[in-house]
Structure formats: structure tokens, C-alpha cells
């Protein structure tokens, strides 16, 4: 296949894109012992918002470029080099910012990763558009596979390696001989970011030197572009105008409603599961192993899903996976919520069969999510107008990401609000222990919460080992008003079932629409632009 080199390049670019995502996902787990709870994770999740805002600058990426260097290379190369330099700069100072046991400066940390996500989101715009012209028309659908496999690989490589090599206990248990054991990990977050920053710079330099790109004028059969300031400004205005026209297409408006609301069903169970497992005493190493186990399955399933979605009805695969993912998530919720809370820093013991069930459900949930992602990307690639491919794909991807960006923080804040975790009177906790209502401590009220000196809030007072010990010394007991994770997860599941019943017919309708329903209409004469 002549497109194999191009597919490998896309896979590499999407892999780099997944690296900062893995780093960001590892931080809440690394800082859990410093009081990083559900509310903190809700705030930190705003760092990923550039993926939901990139539609604001995607027309600029589509319109401004050097035709001699390459329409997409004009953005991919400088943006990835800047990304590498930012990671190097962050690597030099971040270890001093994140001191173990001390509360991190969440606003500063969120702002730093927001900037990193902004750069990676810009790269995503250019790569999505490049994929539409780099591949032959019959292979464009494979771009969704490269996106899924590449982002997953980059995410897991950075997430798993950082959690493994950045944890002294894991290094001593599995990577070091007894004589070489130490209280320090093999790598820190800072050194890890320095390494990946250098990787970004080197790989991008090689892409810039050795990968050529056909001139946009040749690709689109038009005269060479005018790159004067006036022409560039006109091109940007034209791109924004086209983006607005895409957003006003009736078919696109219907799809936007679907993409904005579909992921609310999974926001609580998937978004809060890692912190919930840590609070239940599941070791970080177990989360790492789970991540490593599902990676090969996810890559294989991405390839299989590309075949399932290669036909004319990729949304059929999506609608089949949606209720399955809801059912798997409900099973995972019940398995996790059945565990008792433990003191921070302690590990709970569970039988082997419990871990087998947990891993099986987690892998199944991720695989169903991956199948839905590939199906959605295949559908987007099929309907996108390739003359403004970067902008069109970015609009659809941005809306889809926004569906997770709004629902996940809301779910996480709901979990923390319902739990009201803190130090309560031991007598009140004992009386509330016989509650007949699942997941709720009936009889325990906010007035039973004890005020501890130097407490930094009701969540942080018990989420750390020091806070737990301080509560016990004062004659109290760490508890919560309700199991916020379980209650929010059940609410999201119910919302998902109602959503699917309402939108199932709408999804079939969107899939049956002709290609012409997704193309821009000429403003002269009323014909489709492509006609």
C-alpha cells in the first residue's frame, strides 16, 4: 500500500499528541497523597479546555500558511517545536512546585497545562486537516484509526511510565535489586518532561526536513495563493465565515446536540474512578497494571473497529456500543462502590477474583469507548467537506470534546458536594452506620462535622494521612454524608438511558442523510459548492 509511510507518520504525530494528555492524567494520582481530591481534579480538568475551544482559531490554521513549506507543515512543525520547548521549561521548575505532602498550587498548575493543551490542540487541527490530503480518498477512513491508536499509545506511554518510574515503591519492588533500593524514584515529573520535550523537538525537526507536502494550490486545483497581509486577512475572514456556515447547516446542528450531550452518561464513573479506587485503598501500582493490560487490547480493537466502521453506516457501530458501555459502567460502579474506605496511605486486600472482575470491566469499558471514538471519527471523516477539512473536522471534534469537558467537572464537583467528606463526631458516625438507604449515611449531618485546627477544608482534612490522624487524635472519625461517587454515577447512568431512548432515532436519521446535506452551499446560485 502506497499510503503506509503516510499512515506511519500520522500515527507518530498522533502519538506525540497523546503524551501531554497522559502526563495530565497522571498528576491527580501522583498528588492524591497531597490532598488532590475530586474538587481539585474538577478544577484541573479545565486544563484540557483548549480541545473544546480550538474551533475559535482553527480557521486561522486553515487559512494562514506557507505554500512553499507546506500548508499543514507550516503549523505542525513550529507548534510541535514550541510544545517541546514548553515541556523543557516546565520540566526545569515543576519539581520545585510539586513538593510531596504539600498542597499544590492548583491554579498555577492548571494554567501551565492549559498552555500545553493549547499547543497540542493546535497541532491536532493541522494534523486532522493534513490527514484528509495526505491519504488517498479510499484510505481517509484509516485516519481515525491512526488518531485512536496514536493518542492511546502516547497517552499510555507517558501515563504508565510516569506512574511506574515516578513511584519509589514500584521501582524498589519491580525495577531495582535489593542493594539499589532508594526512597527516590527513578524519574521525577520534571526529568520526565525534560525527556519528552527533547523528543518533541528532535522528531519535529526530522519531520520538517524529510517530509514533503504537495502545494495546497496543486491539491485543490486553484492558482497559487497570495500571501500578502491583505490576502491573509481576507483568507482568515473567509475561513471564519465558512466555519459559521458549517455551524448553521441543519444536519451539523443536529449532530452538535448529540455530541454535546452523549458523554454525560459516563462522566462520573469514568472521570472519578481513579481517585475513588485510591480512596478505597487500591495501590497506584494496580492502576498502572490495569492501564498496561488494556493497552494492547485497545490497539487491536481500534484496528478491528476500523473494519466495522468501513461501511456506509459507522454510526450503527456507535449506537450498538453506547448501551453496552452504560451497562459495563454500571457493573464497574457497583464493584468499586462495594469497597470500604481506608486510611490514606494504607492498602486494602482483595481476593484475586475481585481484581479479575475489575480489570475485565475496566478493559471492556475502555474498549467500548474506543469503538465509539473510532466510529465517530470515521463518520466525521466521511461527511467532512475536505476543502475546509481542518476547520470542519475541528468543529466536530471540538464539540465532541466539549461534551466531556463540561460533564466531567460537573460530575466531579457533584461527587465532592454529595460526600461532604470530613472529620465527624465518632458517636454520630457510629449511629449513622446502620442506615437502611444504600450509599447514604442517614442520621449524619453537616452539624456533626468537627472543626480541626489548620484544616484547609472539609475534603483536605481527611484525604491526607496527616488529616486522618489529626481527626482520630481529636476523638473524631473520617467519614462522609453519602457515597458521592455511587450516587452521581447512578444519576449519570439514568441520564444516559433516557438520552439513548430519545436520540436513537435521531442518530439513524443523521446516518441516512446524503453527503450533500453536509456540504457547504454556494452563496451564488444555491448549488452545492462541490458541484
UniProtKB/TrEMBL annotation:
User: Which lineage do the record's taxonomy fields give for this organism?
Assistant: Eukaryota, Sar, Stramenopiles, Bigyra, Opalozoa
Per UniProt, the keywords (alphabetical) are: Membrane, Signal, Transmembrane, Transmembrane helix
What name does UniProt use for this protein? Major facilitator superfamily (MFS) profile domain-containing protein
Topology relative to the membrane, per the entry? Multi-pass membrane protein
Tell me which domain of life the UniProt entry assigns to the organism this sequence originates from: Eukaryota
Species this protein is from: Cafeteria roenbergensis (Marine flagellate)
Tell me the PANTHER family matching this sequence: ACETYL-COENZYME A TRANSPORTER 1, SOLUTE CARRIER FAMILY 33 ACETYL-COA TRANSPORTER -RELATED
Q: Which GO terms describe its biological process?
A: acetyl-CoA transmembrane transport
**A Pfam family name for this chain?**
Acatn
Enumerate the transmembrane spans.
36-53, 74-94, 106-127, 139-166, 186-210, 246-266, 286-305, 317-340, 352-375, 485-505
For this record, an example GO cellular component is:
membrane
Which stretch is the leader sequence? 1-26
SUPFAM superfamilies per the UniProt record, alphabetical: MFS general substrate transporter
An example Gene Ontology molecular-function term: acetyl-CoA transmembrane transporter activity
As for subcellular location, the record says: Membrane
Amino acid at each position: 500500500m502506497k499510503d503506509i509511510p503516510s499512515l506511519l507518520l500520522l500515527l507518530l504525530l498522533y502519538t506525540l499528541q497523546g503524551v501531554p494528555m497522559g502526563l495530565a492524567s497522571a498528576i491527580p494520582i501522583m498528588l492524591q497523597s497531597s490532598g488532590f481530591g475530586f474538587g481539585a481534579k474538577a478544577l484541573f480538568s479545565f486544563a484540557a479546555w483548549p480541545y473544546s475551544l480550538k474551533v475559535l482559531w482553527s480557521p486561522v490554521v486553515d487559512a494562514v500558511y506557507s505554500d512553499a513549506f507546506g500548508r499543514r507543515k507550516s503549523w505542525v512543525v513550529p507548534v510541535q517545536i514550541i510544545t517541546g520547548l514548553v515541556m523543557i521549561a516546565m520540566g526545569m521548575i515543576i519539581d520545585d512546585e510539586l513538593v510531596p505532602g504539600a498542597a499544590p498550587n492548583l491554579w498555577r498548575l492548571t494554567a501551565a497545562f492549559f498552555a500545553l493543551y493549547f499547543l497540542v490542540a493546535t497541532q491536532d487541527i493541522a494534523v486532522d486537516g493534513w490527514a484528509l490530503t495526505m491519504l488517498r480518498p479510499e484510505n481517509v477512513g484509516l485516519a481515525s484509526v491512526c488518531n485512536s491508536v496514536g493518542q492511546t499509545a502516547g497517552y499510555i506511554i507517558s501515563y504508565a511510565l510516569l506512574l511506574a518510574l515516578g513511584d519509589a515503591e514500584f521501582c524498589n519492588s519491580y525495577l531495582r535489586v535489593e542493594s539499589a533500593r532508594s526512597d527516590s524514584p527513578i524519574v521525577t515529573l520534571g526529568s520526565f518532561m525534560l525527556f519528552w520535550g527533547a523528543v518533541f523537538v528532535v522528531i519535529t525537526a526530522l519531520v520538517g526536513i524529510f517530509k514533503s507536502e504537495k502545494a495546497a494550490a496543486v491539491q485543490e486545483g486553484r492558482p497559487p495563493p497570495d500571501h500578502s497581509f491583505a490576502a491573509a486577512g481576507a483568507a482568515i475572514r473567509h475561513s471564519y465565515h465558512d466555519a459559521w456556515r458549517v455551524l448553521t447547516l441543519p444536519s451539523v446542528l443536529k449532530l452538535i446536540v448529540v455530541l454535546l450531550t452523549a458523554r454525560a452518561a459516563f462522566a462520573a464513573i469514568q472521570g472519578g474512578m481513579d481517585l475513588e479506587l485510591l480512596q478505597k485503598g487500591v495501590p497506584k501500582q494496580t492502576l498502572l497494571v490495569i492501564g498496561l493490560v488494556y493497552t494492547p487490547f485497545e490497539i487491536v480493537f481500534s484496528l478491528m473497529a476500523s473494519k466495522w466502521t468501513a461501511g456506509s453506516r459507522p454510526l450503527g457501530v456507535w449506537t450498538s456500543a453506547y448501551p453496552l458501555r452504560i451497562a459495563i459502567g454500571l457493573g464497574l460502579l457497583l464493584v468499586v462502590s462495594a469497597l470500604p474506605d481506608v486510611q490514606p496511605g494504607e492498602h486494602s486486600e482483595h481476593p484475586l477474583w475481585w481484581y479479575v472482575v475489575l480489570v475485565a470491566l475496566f478493559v471492556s469499558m475502555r474498549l467500548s469507548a474506543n469503538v465509539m471514538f473510532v466510529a465517530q471519527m470515521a463518520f466525521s471523516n466521511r461527511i467532512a467537506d475536505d476543502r475546509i477539512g481542518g476547520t470542519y473536522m475541528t468543529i466536530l471534534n471540538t464539540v465532541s470534546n466539549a461534551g466531556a469537558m463540561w460533564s466531567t467537572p460537573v460530575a466531579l464537583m457533584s461527587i465532592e458536594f454529595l460526600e461532604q467528606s470530613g472529620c465527624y463526631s465518632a458517636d454520630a458516625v457510629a449511629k449513622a452506620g446502620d442506615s437502611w438507604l444504600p450509599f447514604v449515611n442517614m442520621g449524619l449531618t453537616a452539624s456533626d462535622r468537627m472543626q480541626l485546627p489548620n484544616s484547609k477544608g472539609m475534603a483536605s482534612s481527611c484525604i491526607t494521612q496527616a488529616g486522618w490522624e489529626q481527626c482520630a487524635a481529636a476523638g473524631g472519625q473520617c467519614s462522609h454524608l453519602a457515597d458521592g461517587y455511587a450516587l452521581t454515577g447512578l444519576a449519570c447512568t439514568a441520564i444516559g438511558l433516557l438520552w439513548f431512548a430519545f436520540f436513537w432515532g435521531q442518530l439513524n436519521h443523521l446516518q441516512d442523510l446524503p453527503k450533500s446535506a453536509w456540504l457547504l452551499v454556494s452563496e451564488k446560485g444555491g448549488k452545492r459548492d462541490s458541484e
